[in-house]
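User: Reviewer 2 asked us to show a designed sequence for the structure in our supplementary figure. I'm pasting the structure tokens here. Could you produce the per-position amino acids so we can include them in the response letter?
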């Protein structure tokens, strides 16, 4: 499930597959490092380098994080046509609630607009 960044909103889920993926990702040190590094949009290669992990590991962890409300996918446009997927942390705060109806995760978006941040990236122009 690839998601585009949400606009400063709140997402809540009680879907078991999403909950399982979210808990698995949060329990994984590499996933937490990727979330930390993904404050600005980055490709998987950039995330692997920033986190000092193997590229194959980074691809697996990004795939796992993409199944959660914590990371969103965008596109880095290249004037030469070599567009690349890029990822950005899509959570500023998360809360786990356990109640009579079960378990849910509520994720609040970042204060800054991740799409606007993408246009502030070097080499990216809206022209």
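Assistant: Here is a per-position design you can include in the supplement:
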């Amino acid at each position: 499930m690839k998601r585009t960044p949400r606009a400063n909103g709140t997402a809540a889920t009680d879907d078991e597959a999403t909950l399982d993926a979210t808990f698995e990702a949060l329990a994984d040190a590499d996933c937490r490092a990727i979330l930390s590094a993904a404050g600005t949009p980055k490709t998987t290669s950039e995330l692997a380098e920033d986190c000092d992990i193997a590229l194959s590991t980074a691809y697996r962890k990004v795939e796992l994080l993409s199944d959660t409300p914590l990371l969103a996918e965008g596109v880095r446009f290249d004037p030469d046509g070599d567009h690349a997927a890029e990822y950005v942390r899509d959570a500023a705060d998360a809360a786990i609630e356990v109640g009579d109806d079960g378990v849910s995760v509520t994720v609040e978006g970042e204060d800054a607009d991740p799409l606007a941040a993408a246009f502030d990236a070097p080499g990216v122009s809206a022209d």
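For the response letter, you might also mention the following. The longest strand covers residues 93-99. The chain has one domain: 10-113.
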